[in-house]
Write a structure and sequence with these properties.
By secondary structure, this protein is mostly helical.
Length: 88
Amino acid sequence: LEKLPTSCPEIPHIQHNLAVLHANEQDWATAIEYFQKSLILDERARQSHEALARIHRFQAVLAYREALQSNSPEPAAPSFDLQSSRIK
């Protein structure tokens, strides 16, 4: 999968799926980078927009929790779905 972006750079699903893999490892910076690349290729990519929003919302909750020095349980990290590229 890591080699596919150079072989098929015009397919936004590949960028999205790489983002999902990094997000599942909680590598947020890299996940954001790949979701943004997906959106550069297709600005209408709803799942990539929603995924970015979930990451930013999660990071905001963590920052707010830290600022309040809250002892509340840490929120669950968001989960993401891989996209399928069906070529007909």
